[in-house]
Design brief:
- With 333 residues, this protein is mainly beta.
- The protein folds into 2 domains: 3-141, Jelly Rolls, CATH 2.60.120; 158-330, Cysteine proteinases (Cathepsin B, Chain A).
- 14% of the residues lie in helices and 39% in strands.
- The protein contains 5 helices and 20 strands.
- The protein has helices spanning 179-190, 197-204, 215-224, 236-244, 312-320; strands spanning 9-13, 18-21, 25-29, 33-38, 40-48, 54-65, 71-73, 77-82, 93-94, 98-101, 104-107, 111-123, 132-141, 158-159, 228-233, 249-255, 274-287, 290-296, 307-311, 325-330.
- Strands 2, 3, 4, 6, 7, 8 and 12 form a 7-stranded antiparallel sheet that branches.
- A hairpin with a 3-residue loop joins strand 9 and strand 10.
- The longest helix is centred in the middle third of the chain and has 12 residues, at 179-190.
- The N and C termini lie close together (9 Å).
């Protein structure tokens, strides 16, 4: 995939990171990356953490005070302690300039983001094994950076066959909480894996957040299996790009199936009302009957009820409510 299309993404290969080796860890530092006037940042990483090794991903932001125009660096903010074989957990924290809420770093009111610097600390386990960090990705969000108004685009007719899996037929103790790992399982099994939803769910589980839906931890799990995986602040261009390339995506939406509910965008035939939900987009249909997005919605009551068609404009409103968040996962070149 050509990076020229990824307007809200920055990819950093391990070879581009400065390495400092210490007795019990390795520290990887990025260069200062200039991104003017951003509001939010999400960092993704593709790494393998053998045995009990783990990594801590941190960022600090160069901000400008909107009133006095003074600039300064924030404190280092952390995405917590992550590894595939440990009790991984996010670390929501804040300082005067920025804050992290589970998976998203946001600029506080009164400041604007100007640049970012990353630090990844790789901790050895007690046998001396260290994480293998392949790549880090940054996606950033600006005001109206994906607004559909006056935007020209051309939809295509395409369906990418993707396994249909209902979260509602899984372990009843967690069934209503696992939309993200269920959708992730659909994407990974399409790529040739044979994974069980519950296993994927607990491999993504955030023990501090006590939830399965940490966006960065979900894509990090896919990355640990050898795939290129990242979170992206997407939009219509990103959707068309991935479907055209034969790659279904996982997206975050907020919607209602109650036409009288004015809090969330209405989607006809949707299985529920939700303040936050992850689904798979596996196709687009354009016909005399209108424009449709073909989805695998894991909230369907059974596997046969997962494949649905949502009106394009309704879907885009629901996706916009989550700032067009999407997971992109595909095999390495």
């Amino acid at each position: 995939m050509s990076n020229k299309y990824l307007n809200s993404m920055i990819f950093i290969n391990k070879k581009k990171l400065k390495v400092i080796k210490e007795e019990n860890n390795e520290i990887y530092l990025s260069k200062v990356i200039k991104i003017d006037d951003f509001k939010k940042i999400i960092v993704s990483w593709n790494a393998v953490t053998p045995l009990n090794s783990y990594i801590v991903v941190q960022a600090r932001v160069f901000v400008q005070n909107k009133k006095d125009k003074k600039k300064k660096w924030s404190e280092w903010m952390s995405w917590g302690k992550w590894g595939t074989n440990i009790k991984r957990g996010s670390e929501s924290s804040k300082c005067d300039e920025v804050r992290i809420d589970v998976d998203t770093l946001s600029i506080n009111e009164g400041y604007s983001g100007k640049a970012i610097e990353l630090k990844i600390i790789s901790y050895y386990d007690n046998k001396g094994f260290a994480a293998d960090i392949r790549e880090v990705a940054i996606t950033y969000y600006k005001e109206n950076n994906n607004d559909l108004k006056n935007k020209k685009y051309e939809l295509i007719n395409k369906l990418i066959e993707t396994p249909c899996i209902s979260q509602m037929k899984r372990n009843e103790k967690i069934a209503h909480k696992i939309c993200s790992p269920t959708s992730l399982t659909m994407l990974l099994n399409r790529l040739g894996e044979n994974l069980k939803v519950e296993d994927v769910a607990y491999s993504c589980f955030d023990y501090n957040y006590n939830e399965f839906g940490n966006w960065t931890y979900n894509v990090a799990y896919a990355g640990s299996l050898g795939y290129k995986a990242y979170v992206e602040y997407g939009g219509i261009d990103s959707l068309i790009r991935e479907i055209s390339n034969g790659n279904p995506i996982e997206v975050s939406v907020k919607y209602t199936n109650d036409i009288n509910n004015k809090e969330y965008p209405y989607i006809e035939n949707a299985p529920l009302t939700t303040s936050g939900h992850l689904i798979v987009v596996c196709g687009i249909e354009v016909s005399n009957n209108g424009k449709w997005v073909i989805v695998n919605d894991p909230a369907g009551k059974d596997d046969e009820s997962v494949r649905l068609k949502y009106k394009f404009e309704d879907f885009m409103k629901a996706w916009q409510r989550s700032n067009y968040i999407m997971y992109v996962i595909y095999k390495q070149d």
